[in-house]
Amino acid sequence: MHRAIKEYVRNQIANNGRTSQPFRDRYQHTLRVYAWAERLQALEGGDLRIIQIAALFHDAGWDDHIPHQQVSAALAKDYLAKNGYADSDIEKIVQAVANHNQRSSEASLPKECYILMDADILDELGAITVLWDGMATALGSEPSYMKAYQRLCHYHEQNKGREHLLQTESGKRLYRERIAFLDYFIKHLEYELGLVHDLPVPLVFTPQNRH
Ligand SMILES: [Fe+2]
Ligand SMILES: [Fe+2]
User: Fold this and answer.
1) Which residues lie at CB < 5 A from ion ligand 2?
2) 82 alpha carbon to ligand 2 midpoint, in Å?
3) Pick from 78, 79, 82, 62: which is nearest to 70 by CA?
4) Domain residue spans in the chain?
C-alpha cells in the first residue's frame, strides 16, 4: 500500500545527507515504524490511513539547522498537496509528522499523533537492540562479545527509564514487554558468557514470567 509515497520517501532519505551507523538504514526504520503504527492502530483505534502516511513521512526530511520533524512535515505537505490529497487529511498527517518528537503529554493531540510517537520509540527496542549493540560494537575498536554485552546492559538501563515517554496504553505495555524480554535475554547471555553460574529459571521467556 502507498507505493508511490514509499518510493518518494525512499529517494528523499537516500539523498537527504542524514548520517547514521551504516547498518541503521533510515528507510528500513521507516518501514518498521509503519508496521508498529499499524499494530498500535489495531489496538488503539484512530484513522489507519492517516497513521500509515504520517509514518512514511515522519523521518523523510533532514536539514543541518532545522529540526527534522519540521522538514519532514513540509515535505509531506508539499507532496500530498501536489498529489491531490484532501486538505483535511493533509492537515492531520502534517500535524502527526511535525509532532512525532514531542515527548511531553502537556498538549492534547489527536490519537494518530500519539500512535506515531509510540511506534517511533518501539522500533529498535527488543531483539533488534541486540543486533544493534552487537554491530555497533563490531564497528568499534577491539570488538568482543564482552564489549557487546556491556553496551547492551548500558543502553538497556537507560531504556528502562523511558517508559513514561510512551503515550498510549498499548504502547506502554509493548514497551514493558520488550524491556522484560531484554532482561531475560541478558540473563541468558550472562550465563553463556560464564558471568553467572545459574541458568535463568524458567528457561523459556513468556510474558507471564516477566517482572
Ligand atoms: Fe524522527
Ligand atoms: Fe523515526
Assistant:
1) 59, 120
2) 24
3) 62
4) 3-103, 127-209
Report CA(188)–ligand 2 centroid distance (Å): 30
Which one-letter amino acid corresponds to residue 126? G
Dihedral of CA 57/59/63/68: which sign? positive
CA of 136 to the centre of ligand 1 (A): 20
* Residues 171 and 118 sit within 8 Å (Cβ to Cβ): yes
Distance 71 CA to ligand 2 centre (A): 13
Q: What is the pLDDT along the chain (211 residues), one digit of tens a residue?
A: 899 999 999 999 999 888 889 999 999 999 999 999 999 999 999 999 999 999 999 999 999 999 999 999 999 999 999 999 999 999 999 999 999 998 765 679 999 999 999 999 999 999 999 999 999 999 999 999 999 999 999 999 999 999 999 999 999 999 999 999 999 999 999 999 999 998 877 778 776 655 4
Gap between the Cα atoms of 79 and 101, Å rounded: 21
- Distance CA(92)–CA(69), nearest Å, equals 14
| pTM over the 0.90 mark | yes
Distance CA 112, CA 125 (A): 21
Fold of 3-103: Cyclin A; domain 1 (1.10.472)
Q: How far apart are CA 32 and CA 123, in angstroms?
A: 7
- Cell, residue 49: 490511513
**C-alpha cell at position 124:** 529498535
